[in-house]
Write a structure and sequence with these properties.
homodimer, alpha/beta, 9-stranded parallel sheet, 10 helices
Chain lengths: ~270, ~270
């Protein structure tokens, strides 16, 4: 028996507004949703919160906060301000967590260790606000191919080390696409335990033709999703599995209802 | 003061034959060379060995053995046969190591752990031949974005765990492109010590437009190469730094002498 399904708005981002995603989830019997902030802004946070409540959807996460490193102090302060707004939005829509894509190396720098320090400082600065708003922060380790420009937290172990140092109110988002290759994965998922705040799925295609926008539908790639799900369940995770597929040349070009039906069918059969 | 320079034939693979690379290295004062086996086969192993000796070049590695996992026993046996031929070739040209790109997940499989077991079994089977031929094997951990289709050994730590289990006659090739992102890198390079058999350099471009053929010239990306070199030197490495750049749309389209001059200049200034 699979975990319940949540639809990340990125999966149908080319086709549907947030309002359409909410109605689409309700229509297809999907019980969870995870909006990106651009879609949330288009809809309006208050209106989105009402629609989500009306349809009884769980909000499995808000995507995304983070992007802490910057070339100067003003840039870092702007990032913190934006993260505090993200906390407010997450609270208003009742999100189970605010997902953090922590950011990469600032332009002009080659100092990945420095960027990592900026990430830790940034999270540390926003964490009291997140705790006060009762919005758990979920660090999402991103695949190492994004280390330079999107996230310099690149393994689950590294994310958990951060959590260990930061204390209460913070955990991780485990995304199959980002972590499936990690030789230390089983051990780190067990270590994560109840700190797994979200579980994202899609698949790694062979070949992968684009670093960002060529993720696969579950079952079309090489990730052993049932094994990964069993690991997160064994660690104590009881939440939704959230489908997040960036696919410029395939799934974003299809009819959104077909995409959603395929997600549901694949979740039943190969996840 | 930088480590001496070696030219991997891949860096000018679109422009030069092995014979031209050998003569080019001699002409430009480069003291090391690392051929790929396709170029070696074109030239003929014996003739290549003579030319390399004549010009007094160090052979910093032969690229490449590996590719162990296969869907069936016949495939695995064929891989072993090919690896034994690679050992003979490496011995004949006096290569300091045979670089192993270990292979990914066999077609139709989603079992990365199984592929990793096949890799260990394969290396274990060829290692006695390598020892007998006095050809050190260098496991090259590849960037995790190649885990599915090229190499399921994806971190230096994982490669060293393999070395620990396999015993004498085996070490690692540290390639900046594959390992620069690793949060555990400094510790693992120190752990590697004298088991670092080769050190490869190029750069990670932002953005990177192709998973395979968009590597950058040293200095054009985000890798802190002086810091990485200091780490491998501190670990005891005294060999060449080998330039290996796959660049379909830039460096492979330029005049090879210009490429070589640029490598030399960048090695002086940014490595």
């Amino acid at each position: 028996m699979s975990l319940p399904l949540s639809l990340n708005t990125a999966t149908v981002r080319a086709q549907w507004s947030l309002e359409q995603v909410i109605e689409g989830c309700a229509r297809h019997g999907i019980t969870g949703i995870s909006p990106w902030r651009d879609k949330l802004a288009e809809c309006g946070v208050r209106r989105a919160a009402e629609l989500i409540r009306k349809h009884g959807l769980a909000v499995t996460g808000l995507c995304r906060g983070g992007m802490f490193p910057a070339a100067d102090e003003a840039g870092r302060r702007a990032a913190l301000d934006d993260n505090r707004r993200a906390i407010d939005e997450a609270a208003e829509i009742g999100a189970q967590c605010l997902v953090l894509v922590v950011g990469g190396i600032p332009a002009g720098s080659k100092d990945i260790d420095g960027a990592r320090t900026q990430v830790e400082d940034g999270i540390s600065a926003m964490l009291p606000d997140a705790r006060a708003a009762r919005v758990p922060l979920a660090i999402e380790p991103l695949h190492p191919m994004y280390a330079a420009d999107r996230a310099c937290v690149n393994t689950l172990g590294q994310a958990l080390d951060l959590c260990d140092r930061l204390g209460e109110g913070i955990g991780v988002a485990v995304d199959a696409y980002h972590v499936w290759w990690d030789p230390d994965l089983a051990r780190q998922i067990a270590r994560a335990g109840r700190r797994i705040l979200a579980y994202h799925i899609c698949d790694w295609l062979v070949p992968t033709t684009d670093l960002l926008l060529d993720r696969g539908m579950m079952g079309d790639g090489v990730i052993d999703l049932p094994r990964l799900r069993a690991m997160v369940e064994r660690a104590g995770y009881k939440g939704h599995q959230e489908v997040e597929i960036f696919s410029a040349n395939n799934w974003w070009k299809r009819d959104a209802d077909e995409v959603v039906r395929t997600c549901i069918e694949r979740c039943r059969t190969v996840c």
